[in-house]
Amino acid sequence: MPIDDNPPDASHRPPEGARPAWGGPAPGMTTPYEWQIGWRYVRAGRSGRRNGFISFISLISMVGIALGVAALIVVLSVMNGFQKEVRDRMLSVIAHIEIFDTGGAPLADWKATAEAARIAAPEAVRGAAPFVSAQVLVARGDEMRGALLRGIVPAEEASVTPLAAQMKDGAFAELQPGAWRIVLGIELARSLGVRTGDQVTLVAPGGQVTPAGVLPRLKPFTVAGTFDSGHYEYDSAYALVHLDDAATLLRTGGATGVQLKLADLHAAREVAAQLARALPTNLAVRDWTRTNRNWFDAVQLEKRLMFIILTLIVAVAAFNLVSTLVMTVTDKRADIAILRTLGASPRSVMGIFVVQGALAGIVGTLAGVVLGLAIAFNIDVLVPALERALSTSFLPASIYVISRMPSLPLASDIVPIVLISLALAFVATLYPSWRASRVNPAEALRYE
Q1: Is 376 left (phi over 0), alpha (psi -120 to 50) or beta?
Q2: What is the pLDDT of residues 99-124, one digit of tens each?
Q3: Which pTM value belongs to this model?
Q4: Per-residue DSSP letters for 113-168?
Q5: Mode of pairing for the β-strands spanning 97-101 and 283-287
Q6: Would you say residue 406 has pLDDT above 90?
Q7: Domain-by-domain residue ranges, the chain?
Q8: In terms of Cα–Cα distance, which of 103, 124, 132, 108 is closest to 278?
Q9: Complete DSSP assignment for 209-250
Q10: Which of 131, 204, 208, 447 has a 20 to 30 A CA-CA distance from 353?
């Protein structure tokens, strides 16, 4: 057939503003036709048995992504909530940073050490208090328990620990020098069977040499009260006395360390490193994250593992898009062939199906974020309602310290979840889209 090299007459040209028959953008439109056709394929599929099935599979993929993202957000938010609850209860008893002599010797002047710390980190340090610390035995009749004895100055202690600030007018006010009074953790007092006003005997480390041999140092104390921090480790193993009484019993001659309160508890490691460089080399600096290092490391490891496990759920849902797109490509072979004969490049065809899969991933991810945040922010309402409906308790107060389900959504968790979900959805579109770009128009239209 001879080829007509002459341009078509103006009467054969499409009217001004008309839309091309193959679905490209109309003149004056800036949206690429790949986006338009990809979005049309996402919305299409409601009619016909085959198209309806493809649409159903696509919907299941989006729902799967949404549920996976929501599960990730809820689980990590609950883990953050538990970690914050335990951390706050822990820091109600202990200070953010402790400074002590590496050899265990008493500090010559604890106020000078505290002032040096303030000078080294003026913006970080908000309070300082002395302490004496040692392992002792607490005895009451036939009962005997190991405990960590802490000698404190109640007035100074209130500036570094919330527990002392709350109890400074209660049991802590009775801790006077020479009064030989003691405040016990509530679990320790319960295990010994003592109440306020009872006497307990402290057995100090080291002995007293006598003609009869080495005898342990014993000293009776009157129970001034108990404290309940909500943290079993401290409630079952902490005993607080006045610093002068502890120094006399332990023969330290004074404070053995200084506790510091920081403006930002999350900066404890950085401030501790800064103080370690500025203070004399005989002084050791330990922050609260290292005091309970094993627990915090275990929590971080558990959080990472849960993130990986739940990300696999999102990955499975995202790769369901592969089957959806493969079926769509098979169903749209004739459309692809027509686009190719009208001049669409393989790259443009590939872009159409990348857009379709990416849009499904975006919709599923955004729906999952909305659902996850809705549950995370209202978990204190949803969990009690579910407990009432099932007539059960997920966190019995008699077993767990925390009787409610805490939740703390963090942007540092949510942003990576969203990015990973979108990346998985995008990766899942690559192979089907590449297959679509390889469709041979002649082969596809042979039986049409």
Answers
A1: alpha
A2: 998 887 888 889 999 999 999 888 88
A3: 0.73
A4: HHHHHHHHSTTTEEEEEEEEEEEEEEEETTEEEEEEEEEE-HHHHTTT-HHHHHHT
A5: antiparallel
A6: no
A7: 30-83+297-445, 104-281
A8: 124
A9: EETTEEEEEEEEEEEEEEE--S-HHHHTTEEEEEHHHHHHHH
A10: 447
